[in-house]
Amino acid sequence: MLLPSGHWKWFIDKQSHFLMIEMDAGLSFQTAYLDSQLKLIPENLYFEIQHSQHYIESLEAIHDSNVPFENSVKTQIALNATAAKSFHKPVLNKSWLYSKHPYSLQGNEQQLAWLTCNGESYLMLTLSAEGNSVLCLNLSDDFQTSDNKIHRQFSLINVLSDRLTALEQLADDIDETPDNLTHF
Fold it and tell me: Whole-angstrom Cα distance, residue 16 to residue 18?
């Protein structure tokens, strides 16, 4: 498992315009976010204590879920979650595009949850909650909503908490895990 370091630096790649993290030994990681999606454009900003905290919280949420992700995927999720929480512009709530669940998600801590759209359930990592609104990171493959918007893997979705359900709840309701868990 890759642990965060104060030597890591955020930067925008001048050719691709994606937010990147320069890690030790010349290794770089490209996040899923373009500079146009960011409220703050970090240029050679070191990985700060708050970034490390976001990274660790995301790893803990993934670990607590017992979803069998490979370690490299856990790192990829945690780095994208950290970038989203630290730099992404606000995302509008569009709850009407998603199905309500009778057992809405409880708790404000980061956790994995299901979001249902067009009869299919997609795996999300909750990043933050304000009131009843929850900001989520899409961990599933790309999917399309009824307004023809395509949500790419690691895109952000803002919904009411009654649109999300705990991993265990959906599995209990259908006695199996949905096929589109992801192919990580």
Answer: 5
Q: For residues 103 and 73, state if they share a domain.
A: no
What is the torsional sign of CA 31, 74, 81, 67? positive
Task: Kindly give, in sequence order, each residue whose CB lies less than 8 Å from that of residue 27, ignoring residues fewer than 6 positions away.
Answer: none
Residue 172: pLDDT band (50, 70, 90) is low
Contact predicate 135/108, CB 8 Å? no
Q: Helix H segments across the chain? A: 49-65, 71-87, 167-174
Q: Return d(Cα 114, Cα 83) in angstroms, integer.
A: 22
Least Cα distance to 112 among 126, 99, 127, 98 occurs for 126
* Amino acid letter for position 151: H
Q: pLDDT tens digits for 50-73?
A: 999 999 999 999 999 999 999 999
Q: Considering only CA atoms, give the Rg of the chain.
A: 16
pLDDT digits (tens, 9 = 90+) for 71-88: 999 999 999 999 999 999
CB-CB neighbours of 124 under 10 Å: 25
Is 181 contained in some domain?
no
Cβ count within 10 A of residue 129: 17
Domain boundary pick from 87, 104, 138: 87
pLDDT of amino acid 51 = 96
